[in-house]
Amino acid sequence: MKCYVCEHEGVDRDATGVCIVCGMGLCTKHMVRSDVETWEGGYPFPAKKLKHPIPRILCPECSKAWNGEK
């Protein structure tokens, strides 16, 4: 799998991770490691937030959206 962001920049680079939100393949240059709050529960309820955030890999666009940026 190739890095999606690099591919759009005309660079051929292998992906080393995948964004957990959109599934985009990412190289180490473009992946963003972020602590993400996680919820658990059955369908449709009950759900509860886990006590501690879990580190996850996000692409730059999903990272901005996660942090409330456009």
Radius of gyration: 14 Å
Helix content: 10-25%
CA distance, first residue to last residue? 27 Å
| Sheet with the most strands, sense and barrel status | 2 strands, antiparallel
User: Total number of helical segments?
Assistant: 2
What percent of residues are in strands? 25-35%
Explain what the structure shows.
A hairpin with a 6-residue loop joins β1 (17-18) and β2 (25-26). A two-stranded antiparallel sheet has the order 1-2. The protein has a two-stranded antiparallel sheet with strand order 3-6. Strands 4-5 form a two-stranded antiparallel sheet. The protein is elongated, with a radius of gyration of 14 Å. With 70 residues, the protein is α+β, with helices and mostly antiparallel strands. The mean pLDDT is 91. The protein is built from 2 helices and 6 strands.
